[in-house]
Design a protein that fits this description.
By secondary structure, the chain is mostly beta strands. It has strands at about 1-5, 10-15, 25, 30-35, 50-60, 65-80, 85-90, 90-95, 100-115.
């Protein structure tokens, strides 16, 4: 339900959602719970948030979106433009547009995309302009 801010700014939509209530689907990086996603665009969200169970992630990149990974559980390696970076619980990773990224290992990651990653903004190196499901 929108609420009006006292400074007369535009209405702000609030949302509370439990992970168990979020849609779950397979993605490039593993199984994801779409905590905040495209379907919530009418609420004025600037991006999306997914809880992802990563068990290896195919290298891919986005031309316009930035991603943030925050490791909630587990450990592994995130590969950023061919450079391996070990990550574990408590690690945060900033992935700017154009950086080819993938992962190895089993981990649960909170992934934030800014702006929302459209399926047309998912590319695989060497595959031309193939699209697919966002991470």
């Amino acid at each position: 339900m929108p609420t009006e801010r006292s400074d007369n700014a535009r209405p702000v939509a609030v949302l509370v959602r439990h992970e168990a209530e979020a849609p779950c689907e397979r993605s490039t990086c593993g199984w994801r719970h779409r905590l905040l996603s495209r379907e919530d665009a009418g609420r004025g969200l600037a991006g999306w948030v997914h809880a992802v169970d990563i068990d290896g992630a195919r290298p891919h990149y986005h031309r316009r979106s930035t991603e943030l990974y925050y490791v909630l559980e587990g450990e592994g390696v995130v590969v950023l433009d061919g450079v391996e970076q070990p990550v574990r619980r408590g690690s945060i990773v900033h992935i700017p547009p154009g950086v080819v990224h993938g992962a190895r290992g089993r981990m649960r990651v909170l992934v934030v995309g800014i702006p929302d990653i459209a399926e047309e903004d998912l590319f695989y190196p060497g595959a031309g302009s193939d699209g697919g499901a966002a991470a």
